[in-house]
Amino acid sequence: MLKKIFSSKKEKRDISIDKQLDLNKLPQHVGIIMDGNGRWATGKGLIRTSGHKAGVKTLKKILKTCIKYNIPILTVYAFSTENWKRPMTEVNFLMNLFSSFLAEQIDEMCEDNVRIHFIGRVDELPGNLPNELHAAEERTKNNTGVRFNVAVNYGGRDEIVTAVKNIASEVQSGDLSIDKIDDKVIDDNLYTKDLPPVDLMIRTSGDIRLSNFLLWQAAYAEFWFTKTNWPDFSSEEFLQAIVDFQKRDRRFGGLSSK
Ligand code: FPP
């Protein structure tokens, strides 16, 4: 029964995956929970942090694939508000990794016309990291290609609580009447303001949950799970997720869309 939830790489292996892709029906916004770095590393007898290092390579590959196929928005979960519970050495390693990733990739992102944006409690990150993240956003803000959102110190509930507080204070000050509160008002108070909702949500490494990622934005997302650990996730598997997404009947609460 559970097996059906996971993708099968054996299906349609005779036709290459990019030929199965319908370029007119691409998801506009893809979310990815990049899970399994630790398990990938320990499975190889390595320390957990080498899994995160390997995960960076996968992330670069998937970003390039979005650029190649014109997938407009990619949002990835890099560090949650709950990840502070991890050992300090791992947390520090990840913070340094975000910093080195930017230093190494920012020129290439500009060449690729990528606009990077960070979502989450970015200003509460340690040391100079908030400035580095804001500088990267500033440098790429006029780029018109793929919008690359990286969730760092992000929690979906925290995002909604913050939105509720902002809206309540507008009501309290008399700038907003309660009857005017609708989906759009909530959207406008989220980190993803002005972006369309998530169409396709991918999670690697076998767990079948959302883990507090984009709770509001994924309300009608199609979910796609694989047992592959993030460092082993390939562009082909990413395209397979999109091909499978294109076969789904998205009814948005109505009747068949076909
Ligand atoms: C989940 O795997 C992964 C993370 C908490 C970190 C994700 C970070 C990267 C992929 C590094 C690159 C990111 C950027 C933006 C440069 P896990 O450690 O929970 O794995 P496990 O469940 O097997 O322990």
Automatic annotation (TrEMBL):
GO biological process, alphabetically ordered: polyprenol biosynthetic process
EC code(s) of this entry: 2.5.1.-
Cofactor note: Binds 2 magnesium ions per subunit.
UniProt GO molecular function: ditrans,polycis-polyprenyl diphosphate synthase [(2E,6E)-farnesyl diphosphate specific] activity; magnesium ion binding
Catalytic residues (UniProt): 35, 83 (proton acceptor)
CDD domains: Cis_IPPS (cd00475)
Binding annotation for substrate: 36-40, 48, 52, 80-82, 84, 86, 203, 209-211
Residues at which Mg(2+) binds: 35, 222
Keyword Lyase tagged: no
Record keywords, A-Z: Magnesium, Metal-binding, Transferase
Cofactor dependency: Mg(2+)
NCBIfam families, per the entry: PRK14830.1 (NF011405), uppS (TIGR00055)
Protein's job: Catalyzes the condensation of isopentenyl diphosphate (IPP) with allylic pyrophosphates generating different type of terpenoids.
Subunit annotation: Homodimer.
Assigned protein family: Belongs to the UPP synthase family.
Protein's UniProt name: Isoprenyl transferase
